[in-house]
Design a protein that fits this description.
Blueprint (H helix, E strand, L loop, with lengths): L3 H4 L10 H13 L13 H11 L3 E4 L6 E6 L6 E6 L2 E6 L2 E6 H4 L5 E7 L2
Antiparallel strand pairs: 1-6, 2-3, 2-6, 3-4, 4-5
Length: 119
Amino acid sequence: MSIDQYLERTFHPENYNCWDLVREVWQDLTGHDIGDRTPHPATPLAMRRRFDREEREFIRLDAPRSPCITLLRRPRAVPHVGVYLRGRLLHMSERGCRYEPMPVASLGFTSVEFFTCQP
């Protein structure tokens, strides 16, 4: 699978963020729509509560596998998500879509978890 089409995506706080990218990529890779996961308004607390509430739909993995949904957390901040592919993380930041090695993508985060989603 080529990721080139995703690298052209741009961040917009109200219209396209990391959760939107994960939804699009996951559906293209697996055929499964995980639905809109972004609470509105997207506050750090609302995002954490929403993911924690819906986490039962996700299956936690002991180690990353390609592809999987990657959740990155840090205290008192909005959780960040991306899709782990071939040892790198495809994710959306304010600077646009990025495809980075995990050590680079996870800088500044205190927790990195890997999930797959039930169809």
